[in-house]
Structures are given as C-alpha cells and as structure tokens.
Amino acid sequence: MTAKVVSTEIMKKIKLGLIGLGRIGKVHAENLVYRVQAADLVAVADPMEATRDFANNLGIQNFHTTPENIFDNQEIDAVVICSPTPTHLPIIESAAKQGKHIFCEKPLEMTTKKIQQIIDITKQNGVKLQVGFNRRFDANYRRVHAQVTSGKIGEPHILKITSRDPAPPSIDYIKSSGGMFMDMTIHDFDMARFIVGSEVVEVFAKGAVLADKAIGEAGDIDTAMITLKFANGCLGVIDNSRKAVYGYDQRLEIFGSKGMSKITNNYSDTQISFDENGRHAGLPLHFFMQRYTEAYCEEIREFVEAIQGDKPVLASGEDALKATQIALAANKSLVMNAPINVTQTFLSVP
To answer: Domain locations in the chain?
Structure first.
C-alpha cells in the first residue's frame, strides 16, 4: 500500500497511532495531544490494561492491547513506536505495508542486518522513517551544528563529548540493553556524526566497572573512554559514566581551524550565591526527561511536519544504521583492546 501524501495546501492534521505507553511513550503521547497542533493522536496500543486510564485522561478513547487495530485503521497516517526493541521490526513491517509513516524510538534494532531490513521495508512501501535521536532536535546542539556547517569554526579538528547519567539503570535493563555502547553511547555516536558532518572510520574503546560491580557481573561496563577518527581527519573523544552523583552531565565541544563552539549543562535556575565558603549554584537537570524536554517535543513536531510537507526527516534509518555500526565496532574494540575499522566491522557483523 502506498503511503498517504498530504497536500501542503490543505495542511490537514496528521492522524497518529501510538504503540507502547511506557515512560517515553507517555511523553510522546502528551506532546502529541497538548503541544503539537498539527497532530491528532486517535489511538494507542499497549499490552498493559492499566495504561487505559492514562489514554482516556488524554481524551483518547481508542485503546487497544495489541497494535493490529492501529495497522488496520485507514484514517491513521502514521505510527509512533515506543514498544520494546525486539518488537520494532515486525511492527514496522506491518505499519509500512499499510502505508503508514513511522517514528520509532531507539535503538531501531540490535543488529545491522535487521536495521537494513527496516530501511528496505520502509523504502519499498514509500513511507517515512524517523528514529528517536532526540538530541539532534535540542536547540543548543542545533546551534553548534549550524556553526560547523556554515564554516564558522573552520575545519573541525577535535570533538569532545561528555555524557554521564546520574545513576545506573536496573540490572534487568542492563541484561537486555545490548550493552553500554548500544543503549547509552549510541546517542553520542549519532551526535558525533551530526556535529562533525563526517563518518567515523575508526574507533578505540576502553571500559571499566567503577560505579557498580553488579553491572560487571551482568556482563557490562559502567565507565568508558572512546576515541574516534573521522573520514575528514577530525579526531574525537567521548567519555561516559553511568553514575555522576551531581546529576545529568551533558557537554560538547568542537574545536576547529577558525575557532571553537561548545555546549554546557542545563540548570533549573541560574541563581548563584557567594559566602565565606565559596561560590554556590544548583546541580544540572537530573536526567534526560528533564534535560531534553523540548527536544522530545520538537522531534515529534518535525516528524509530523515532514509528513505534511513531504520533507526528509532529520534522523533517518540510515543514521540509526551508522550509529549502530559504530557501537558494534566499539564493542569489538573493547574486547580486542585495539582500534577497529568501522566499515570492516559493519561488513562482518550480522
């Protein structure tokens, strides 16, 4: 089935169905209902009957425990997928065959083979596919990106990214997440490509268990340093930790031949006090739900607008594929304790 093309003259509201009312699904649902004027969330699907009240409180009467009703509903133009990662491929396939455009939370899938399948399926059915790399839609990151692409800082030479969570996730999550590079650093890998504007060709990763020994017992790491080499010659470094006691630490710096651009942490307020003991200020915003509140809304708004205007999306399936490719290379580097050619890893990993 061919995807619906919405006239840019009419600019009617885009009708959406949402699948998965977990933490991030609820965020997207509220944004679609309250903050994205061009959207009309007409149905949700979630296997937990307890989420029905949440949907009803948003004024959504079409609640389903399975997504088939959303696929079959011909008035729905697009779906927002917030279900567990192993369900993404079959859900996307079913939605695409019904001509529905797709927004899917990351990770898109856990292997490059399945991600490529998803890309192929959406292209064959002529539907848009946007991935939930929300940081691309953050106003500060976009400003830095614009400075790089406009040549304001000259040729990029050094990229530095710091990304540290305030506390580790549950061990159950660790066991099914695909590892730190797949569930956490993948945002940084995507941001590295987005900011530098060049592909990562080599990665060298070092990791340790320094914050929570239970994470190591589950087979993962909680602390990492990753160096990157880009096709354009730029060098990059990413540092990650699953436990920063002072809050959510999100910083970026890009240094080039004509200057430098950087992003610092966001705070709940800008008040600073001084006394005989020193200078005192508040902590960074606590976690991603607070830090990227506006980015989550903007990514959904731009997805809807891309459908209305038949425009390309900012975070595509190909972007998910590239970020996953780097994450898999980083995992391989960690095991082998050696720099890894990203392209060769992509060709050799299923």
So the answer is: 14-133, 139-291+321-348
Distance between CA 43 and CA 55 in Å, rounded?
A: 9
Copy the structure tokens of residue 334.
């960690």
Unique residue bearing structure tokens 């070092």: 206
How many Cβ atoms from other residues are within 10 Å of residue 293's Cβ?
Answer: 16
C-alpha 144/C-alpha 55 separation (Å) is 37
Contacts of 40 (CB under 8 A, 6+ apart): 13, 14, 15, 16
Same topology, domains 14-133 and 139-291+321-348? Answer is: no
Q: What is the pLDDT of residues 99-114, one digit of tens each?
A: 999 999 988 999 999 9
Q: Does CATH place domain 139-291+321-348 in 3.40.50.300?
A: no
Q: Span 14-133: which CATH code?
A: 3.40.50.720
DSSP string spanning 73-142? -TT--EEEE-S-GGGHHHHHHHHHHTT-EEEEPSPS-SSHHHHHHHHHHHHHTT--EEE--GGGG-HHHH
295-338 pLDDT tens trace: 999 999 999 999 999 999 999 999 999 999 999 999 999 999 99
Beta-carbon contacts of 139 under 8 Å, excluding residues fewer than 6 positions away, are 294, 295
Dihedral sign from CA coordinates of 203, 208, 212, 214: positive
Of the candidates 128, 175, 149, 156, the one whose C-alpha atom is nearest the C-alpha of residue 303 is: 128
